[in-house]
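Support request from a user on the community tier.

User writes: "When I paste my structure tokens into the form, the page sometimes reloads and wipes my input. The last time it worked, I copied everything first. Here is what I submitted, just in case something in the input itself triggers the reload:"
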């Protein structure tokens, strides 16, 4: 296997005011969100193929999510990789049947209680044999990154620790962290109560904090290191 270099953790969504479209920093270093679309929880799955400069490399973006917004991030990553010539499939981890047809895999999850969701960690555990042989990158969405500070970035980086410790054999070539969405209408009663109290303390209001330019930029950087372009 070719030696893969580990790039440093890239934080998007916590970039300073005006640096990216969609999110602006408020006083206190908090990002200002777009309105969160309320309503039904949807889990995006997609497939795309570049007609412009096909590389014929097949990339899987597998994700897990509780309220659905991580699917939007996975889809945006997929679009960006598709624009670089890859054939991309975006799937929920529970809907992935084997990895043998993919040249590279990007795996992501929403954060709950300072960790990826259990099903995403289980996906890496279950597929570690294959994931040690192809380029792999990890990403997460969370609300810690709504705050633009070194401490928040460190905290968000630590959310990868459970999966990195659970499956040390899989060595991601890059780690991406993105601010996510706070939408109480998509949570069950218990989670809504917990999050309302926690977010009130932190001054984080309901809304969509995803930074599409930052998400896309991370994916564009992945192209060469996933060896798809
Ligand atoms: C029950 C619960 C626990 C959460 N725990 C954390 C946490 O520990 N740290 C954090 O930064 N964000 C936390 N979040 C915020 C989510 O990671 C964030 O809202 C994410 O965008 C949700 O993605 P999803 O819409 O794909 O589920 C939590 C959200 C919920 C509902």
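"...and here is what came back when it finally went through:"
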């Amino acid at each position: 296997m070719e030696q893969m270099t580990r790039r440093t953790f890239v934080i998007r969504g916590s970039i300073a005011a005006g640096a990216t479209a969609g999110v602006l920093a408020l006083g206190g270093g908090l990002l200002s969100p777009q309105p969160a679309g309320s309503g039904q929880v949807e889990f995006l799955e997609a497939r795309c193929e570049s007609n412009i400069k096909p590389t014929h490399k097949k990339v899987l973006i597998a994700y897990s999510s509780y309220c659905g917004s991580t699917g939007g991030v996975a889809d945006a990553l997929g679009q960006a990789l598709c624009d670089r010539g890859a054939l991309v499939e975006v799937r929920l981890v529970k809907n992935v049947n084997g990895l043998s047809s993919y040249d590279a895999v990007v795996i992501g999850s929403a954060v709950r209680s300072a960790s990826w969701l259990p099903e995403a960690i289980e996906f890496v555990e279950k597929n570690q044999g294959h994931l040690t042989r192809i380029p792999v990158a990890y990403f997460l969405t969370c609300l810690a990154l709504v705050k633009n500070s070194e401490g928040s970035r460190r905290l968000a980086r630590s959310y990868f620790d459970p999966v990195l410790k659970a499956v040390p054999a899989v060595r991601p070539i890059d780690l991406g962290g993105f601010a996510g969405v706070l939408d109480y209408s998509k949570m069950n009663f218990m989670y809504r109560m917990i999050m309302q109290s926690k977010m009130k303390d932190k001054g984080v209001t309901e809304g969509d904090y995803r930074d599409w330019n930052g998400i896309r930029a991370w994916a564009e950087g992945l192209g060469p290191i996933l060896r798809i372009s």
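Agent notes: The reload is a front-end session timeout and is unrelated to the input. The pocket of flavin mononucleotide is lined by residues 65-70, 110-114, 141-144, 180-182, 187, 191, 194-195 (CB under 6 Å). Confidence is low (pLDDT under 50) at residues 1-22. Escalated to web team.
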